[in-house]
């Protein structure tokens, strides 16, 4: 499959990507645990059907030491015993934040309170921002049909 569009070669697209990368860096420089960041990136990308991001983030997570058992179970995290309570809270928030169009009330108070039990305000800000940024990346990649499979860990920095 060939991509419909290359953001980086277009002046407007490149500028947009620059700002999204900057937002991503803020999240990655936060105290939100790296394992949580990887899991959320993967789960949001699975929900949105973004093969490009699933390829990238599963490979980056594995390269960072994430186990294949956990990577293989992200899509079924509710039934899996390999995730911490904090990771489960982040995954629930990520799912509800990604599926806001599917739920009349958006993110539930229960999901928010559960995440707030495990993460401080800075980490919550990073988590919410990560969910929003990943949804943005997913939409850019899905709309423009970015191909998957050739990503190498660390390729984009």
TrEMBL record:
Residue ranges annotated as transmembrane are none
The source's domain of life comes to Bacteria
The secretion signal range is: none
Which Pfam families does the UniProt record give? CMD
Carboxymuconolactone decarboxylase-like domain residues are 25-95
GO MF terms here are:
peroxiredoxin activity
What NCBIfam families does the database record attribute to this sequence? Answer: ahpD_dom
This chain belongs to which protein, by name?
Answer: Alkyl hydroperoxide reductase AhpD
Source species = Streptomyces brasiliensis
